[in-house]
Description:
The protein is built from 2 helices and no strands. By secondary structure, the protein is mainly alpha-helical. It has one domain (2-150): Helix Hairpins (Orthogonal Bundle). Helix 1 (2-56) runs antiparallel to helix 2.
Amino acid sequence: MNAKVNRFERILKTKVKxxxxxxxxxxxxxxxxxxxxxVLATLxxxxxxxxxxxxxxxxxxxxxxxxxxxxxxxDLLDSRICREGESLCGVRQSIENTEARLLEKHRDxxxxxxxxxxxxxxxxxxxxxxxxxxxxxIAGIRHGSPKEGRR
Length: 151
């Protein structure tokens, strides 16, 4: 029975390590989400500044090429915002999947812990019964010996 408990404790250690790995992965994904949110905020600010700059210089004379380059810069910011937004969606989906896996791993660990505690309880009960039986045998031998000597 001890071997069975030890085997399940080794399995539990493995399950705990897998769960901890999922936690680390989730932490890294959340950091990436924060980074992407920061990048998107920065890009949004840059786009607003570019649009403000593009619209505020009404009195100045620009060549068509200048206007085209300014508009192209705004378009590049738009496309970068779209790419980063798609990356953010991917990271959020990954976070959701990792959270689901982590929840499942956590349940596995709890089930295994409960089963091991059940096995340990059974082992302790069995040990107590065996000890009590041995004590009963010893008591029977001690109390039985004088009776045999009286015959």
